Amino acid sequence: MNDVMNLDRDVVPEGRNYIGGVFQQAGDGEVIGVYDPARDAELTTIPRSKAADVDQAAAAAKAAFEGPWGRTTVAERADLLDAIADEIEREIDDFALLESLDNGKPFSLARSVDIPRVISNFRFFAGAVRHQETGAHPMDGDAINYTLRRPVGVFGLITPWNLPLYLLSWKVAPALAMGNTLVAKPSEVTPLTAMKLAEVMHKVGVPAGVFNLVHGYGHEVGQAMVAHPDIKGISFTGGTATGHRVAATAAPMFKKLSLELGGKNPTIVFEDCDFDETVKGVARAAFANQGQICLCGSRIFVQREIYERFKTALVEEVNKRVPGNPQDPATNFGALVSQAHLAKVESYIDLAKKEGGVILCGGERPEMHGEFAKGAFLKPTLIDGLAYDSRTATEEIFGPVATIHPFDTPEDAVEMANAVRYGLAGSVWTQDIKTGHRVAAALESGMVWVNTWLLRDLRVPFGGMKDSGVGREGGRFSLEFYSESRNVCVKL
Ligand code: TXE
Which residues contact 375 (CB under 8 A, 6 or more apart)? Predict the structure, then answer.
């Protein structure tokens, strides 16, 4: 048995809001329990904040924006982002352990992916803002135009539970880099690394009111943020249904709005693919983070010539993912984020059976013992035999459940892949480069990988189309979103 990490429980911070540089409880003192899903055990509580707490945070952010922060230089803000990254790096093991405890993901995943990416996000945007360029447009000697970027003001950042700090930092870094101030609300399901980030901000000397953290339920705190007149922009990542509600409130107020929503992403495997590499890549795309990534490839389309052989090999590869103690460094597959989410995912397995699906592997809870006996564990599940337009194969499940379907021609594959309301991501596996380019261009997705998955360059546009969202973030797309561009035309 591998050395199970000594759970140093004092890694769990006290759940508090961080408003105007002060750690505090909600005004009415109400709290929400925060659970370790692998043990179904309460870790701590966080404030169940209400609109009054959001008002206090928005006022602190507005005052900070109108104060010294609004006059900081790019260099000062970039140096602060680097200081945040350095402090997180010093505490990387505690951040990774906390993320694993809160979300149920393996410590090994949080330590190798989530938290290193948090550090990269801060460092990347420190560099991006130092080296940002805007345009100049001379007009035949008569005039010259140049573009200025100005901060917007107070931004509201609302994030989900699947990649808690990875996604929060993706918003915080560029928003601060461009000189805005923030009110952030993490998911009430996984608030703890955001809590620890606030402690880092305080420690490195981010001025009071620049970064405010308000915990609570989405319909109480998130809604109040979106509706708040002093919060001039919203960046939201979460479910499509919630995205509808956020957009309905924000749009009439003409707020800047970025929505990164759900996905039901296709993986298309051609008979000429690099077989062994593709089996591994397709399994990772479907089941990374227990299938709880909006980019996961949960619909696998395999060309008929290799369908049976690929299916057999894929089942063998998927079965290497064995649910276990997330904090054991040897564990490669953790718990789902909550009992409620486990029940939602299991309801789709029941639906799949009703729709004629054949369970090739998984489809049930693993037998867990001791402190993990009541954990939210589920074996990774692969389902064959479903129509490509069945509910199971077109609705977002957001868990370790993937469907597999045969296709004949590239045109068939593209038609089936596009037959969903979502358009976030996709992957294509082939050694014919022309096929790769052509199919990538035909997919209705914001992002397509060819012979890889989740290989990320932070400069590229990130986001979805159709019901997967509105807007793009990443590199200069983030610098544009978190600023107001102003064109100045000077007569010569
Ligand atoms: O997301 P929610 P949840 C999908 C996935 C998942 C579903 C719901 O299908 O099962 O969304 O997951 C806050 N106004 N994705 O419940 O509800 C909420 O408190 C303002 C895909 O986590 O959308 C949380 O902080 N805010 C997604 C955040 O919104 C509101 C990743 C997301 O919560 C609100 C996660 C409201 N009315 C889930 N209601 C992705 N694209 O990565 C809730 N919130």
Answer: 37, 38, 39, 40, 104, 335, 368
Q: Quick count: other Cβ atoms within 10 Å of Cβ 109?
A: 23
> Per-domain residue ranges for the chain?
4-261+468-491, 266-457
Which of the 8 DSSP states describes residue 488?
A: E
Q: What is the pLDDT of residue 141?
A: 87
Question: In the structure, which protein residues have their CB atom closer than 6 angstroms to any atom of ligand 1?
Answer: 158-162, 185, 187-188, 218-219, 222-223, 226, 237-239, 242, 245-246, 260-262, 294, 396, 398
- Superfamily per CATH, domain 4-261+468-491: Aldehyde Dehydrogenase; Chain A, domain 1 (3.40.605.10)
Cβ atoms 215, 185 nearer than 8 A: yes
Task: Check pLDDT > 50 for residue 1.
Answer: no
Residue 153 in this model has a pLDDT that exceeds 80: yes
Same fold, 4-261+468-491 and 266-457: no
The Å distance, Cα 163 to ligand 1 centre, comes to 12
Q: What is the mean pLDDT of residues 402-429?
A: 98
User: For the purposes of burial, counting CB atoms within 10 Å of the CB of 51, is it exposed (0-12), middle (13-18) or buried (19 or more)?
Assistant: middle
Report the pLDDT value the prediction gives residue 7, as an integer from 0 to 100: 53
Phi and psi at 189, nearest 5°, equal -80, -30
pTM comes to 0.97
CA pair distance 147, 474, nearest whole angstrom: 20
pLDDT higher than threshold 70 for residue 26: yes
Q: Please tell me the distance between residue 242's alpha carbon and the centre of ligand 1 in angstroms.
A: 6
Separation of alpha carbons 228 and 250, rounded Å: 9
Asked about 260 being catalytic, the answer comes back as yes
Q: Which fold has domain 266-457?
A: Aldehyde Dehydrogenase; Chain A, domain 2 (3.40.309)
What's the mean pLDDT in 57-81? 97
Q: Evaluate if residue 367 carries a pLDDT over 70.
A: yes
Mean of all residue pLDDT scores within the chain: 97
- CA-CA distances (angstroms) from residue 368 to 166, 250, 454? 29, 45, 31
